[in-house]
Amino acid sequence: MRIFYTFCLLLLCLGVSAQVVYKTVKTDGSVVYSDVRSDGAVAVNLSSMNTVVVPALNNATSQKIGRINPAKTPRPEVQYIVSIRSPDAEQTLRDNSGAVMIDAEVLPKRSGKYQLIIDNQVVKTQSNRKFQLENINRGAHTIQVNFLDNSGKILASSKPQTFYLQKASALINVN
Asked: What is the pTM assigned to this prediction?
C-alpha cells in the first residue's frame, strides 16, 4: 500500500511542470502577467526558488509606529459615587405637613437622571438632584438615590439610609 501512495505522489510531481510567465505592458502603463503569450509579451525568467526578506520588527521605526497606533484597549469605566447630602443618616425631621427635602450628589459630575427610592418603592425620577416631597407619613423611612444615564441604565447607587419624620399627634387636643 505504501508503494502505491509513493507511485501516485511521483505521478503527481511529474504532472507539474515549469510554466512560462509572460509580461505585457499596455499603452496606459498597466502591467499584465499571464501564462498565455500575447502581442508584445516578454517571457519572464523566474528562479526555481522564490524568497522574501522580512524586516526586523524590533527597530526604532517599528517601535515609533507602535506608539502612534497602539492596540485598542478598552477605556476604563468611570466609577460614579452617589451620596445623599440631606437629610443626614438617622436624622429626625419635624414637619406636620409631611414635607421632606432630599438632596443627592454624584461625583464626578455628569448629566443624567436621579431616581429616588423610599421604602423600596421608586417615587420619582428626574434630572434635578433635589427632591421635594409632600405628605410623607410619620415614622422611619429608608431612602436611596440611583444615578441613571439618559437611556435609563443605573450607573451608581447611594447607600440606603434611614431618616425619621415626626408630626404632632392628631390625638392631642389643641384647645
From this structure: 0.53
